[in-house]
Amino acid sequence: MSNPVTVGSMITVQDIQAWYAANPLPDSKAEAAFPLVKSKTDKWETISPASTATKKAASPISSTSTVPVVGRKGFKSVLGNMAEFGLGRKMNGEKIEEFEDLKIKFEENVSNKAVAQQLLDWFGDDLKFVRDAVINEMTYLDWALVSNACSFSFISSNSPHLIGVNPMEYPIEAWQKIVNATAWSNPASQIITDIYNAIELGKTKNKRINTVTVNQKNFQYVRQNTQVQEFTTTLLGSLTGVATPPNLERVNQMMEDYFGYPVKFRVVDEEITRELADQTEVTENPFKNDVAVYSQTEVLGRFQWKSLAIIDNTRETAESFFTVGNVKQVDPSNAKTYSKAKGFSVVDTFADNIYQKTNAVNW
To answer: What DSSP letter does each residue of 86-120 carry, written as one string?
Structure first.
């Protein structure tokens, strides 16, 4: 059987660039926590940014003595490979004919806005689809990694298409992985007390916790929690004796009032559909259920990426951290719009974070 013959592209690089310029991405919580950082190599490395030593005071010395020294704990480093990932969408011969008919209609009357919009929608839907695919994979890797206490164990079953990444674990210390006594799904659990205990644990390691990251399901448990509602009850609620689930703003304001400095929840509310190793599709929040990650900063790391070589700049173009292309073939007739990227999430704060299981089950 002969190979398909490549004859060109359905849309130009200029079409691709113009559509993305007119349809920018919305703000991303994942990218705020893991900003994009371009790399010259296909490897990533991070070093724990701070010692867990408490603020030790200097020792008094006399004019005739030497300065005393204490041991210095070494910084831990983690090194790994980037992953390659991508996705494409095909158009068969029948759809190609429909697309070409639209182009002819537009060329006959360039002022026909309805036909122009049809053309934009036709290839714009594919461009959005392939862009969303790589963005969603980046988002998944960001949140899945940190909510698994920086373990890559999820890779084998949940990321079968990643190339070049092997399961591994960051060197998380035992004190960083904690579990509460009562599951947060129980409205009678002491969530504020659990957060207080985590903050106090951080203080013993010279950490000042100010961000608690959870997924949407876990935050619903927070809203429905009796202790949380008692602390966030409005004046009307006090008068009527009716407590209502507080929103994120009210919870965070209560947290700041209670702890005496800005401590707030960050809620991961993305839902991503991914294909597993057995080819089934699962739609779920990329941040693991029943986990809270306590950090000193909202920025947890970075998504380190490397640009891919563009072989034919008439068919491929770089967009953000990924490459987008379009190619048309004959015998059989088909066209493909695709995206591809190379990168991986890096948790720079791994040695500073506290990882809590909120379902009363140990890690």
So the answer is: EEEEEEEHHHHHHHHHHHHHHHH-TT-HHHHHHHH
